Amino acid sequence: MTLRRLDADEVARRAEEAGLQVIEWGADVHVRPGDDWAAERAFEAMARHGLTCDSYGSYFRATPVESGKFGEIAATAVRLGASRIRVWAGKAGSEDVDSYEREQVVAGLREAADVANEHGLEVALEFHGGTLTDTAESTVRLLDEVGRDNLGTYWQPPQDLPDEQALAGLELVLDQVRAVHVFSWWPSNERHPLTARTELWTAAFGLLAKAGRPLDALLEFVPDNDPDLIPGEADSLRKLIEAGA
Asked: How many helices (H) and strands (E) does the chain have?
């Protein structure tokens, strides 16, 4: 998110300088679905700077109007060398949909997971308000309803949720977490350095270490979207991971 206004090579260069290893390319700016030229440029940039693509950050929301369109997204993810595609669980929160609307999203996610599987890819849900993954409980239920082994979820601290409740949610979805979006917002979407929420992230990485499998920790936001802050935030991220281990 922080590097949207920079071109692909500059994104990769700054990531390398910060000591980062992977990138999640967004489908809204840098590599749109079906844009083979942009995917190739991004792949070449990663090769120059010693990086890999862990995930393709799509904006697929599993709605009926998107049926049949996930193949193009999956093909672009393959071109990037990604192992996973990030998707969204509908367009409304879990308390704002009826059973029919929920089943439509479930069907869309099943289709996406099956198409992704044909391309050797995983799928992971954005853990976010205004979708069916707005709570840990709804996320667990949704994953169970979809019933696909290659579908998991991301995790990030929900806005305005106290640390104890946020961590309880993480523990609930822990077995299904594929990656974590790391940032410090409080209150609401006011952005701070990672160290402003040291206790939260140290505890979160402690829980994630118990998962016993490799997980990606992705820096998503920095204060003021300032790219010059990324090296310091990356260093803080490494220290927080080590503290939680």
From this structure: 8, 9
Answer whether the bond into residue 193 is a cis peptide, omega within 30°.
no
Tell me the three state secondary structure of residue 142. helix
- CATH class of the domain comprising 8-244: alpha beta
pTM (2 d.p.): 0.95
Reported as a single tens digit per residue, the pLDDT across 105-131 is 999 999 999 999 999 999 999 999 999
The single-letter DSSP state of residue 128 is -
Kind and range of the H or E run holding 99: helix 99-118
The closest of 32, 108, 118, 96 to 67, measured between CA atoms, is 108
Q: Which tokens is 27 given? A: 């489908």
Instruction: Collapse the DSSP code of 104 into the 3-class scheme (helix H, G, I; strand E, B; otherwise coil) and give the result.
Output: helix
**Do the strands 191-192 and 184-185 form a parallel or antiparallel pair, or are they unpaired?**
antiparallel
Rg (CA), the chain: 17
